[in-house]
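INFO batch 0412 | record 1 of 1 | parsing
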Amino acid sequence: MYEALKRNGYFVPQSHKDPFMSWSFMEGVRQGVHWLPKTSEIRYFDVASTPPKPKLAEIVVQTIDKHHSLEQHPPFKATCDRILKIPPSTSFLLCILGTLDPKHALFEKDYRKPNK
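INFO prediction complete | emitting tokens
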């Protein structure tokens, strides 16, 4: 299923073993129940330092909600729920964030990771 999503142009985490990519989630993407961006849409930006993965997951979910109103788009909401429950890799989250909001403060040169 992982390879099928890649062949169909979906942007997926680098490892097929990422816990985020469960069989039910991948089947949901195929059926339109969950959302993943297409590889052709992805924009990557370098980041000097990143917040912890749970915080980054929250930032990504807030950004998705800002751009795609979760109440009006159930596939986005289902994916956001999964991101919060089982966050994917940091690099995957950064690519999603960079695609949806390339001007996010995280990508600014003077960005500093929040204190713990």
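INFO post-check: The mean pLDDT is 86.
INFO record closed
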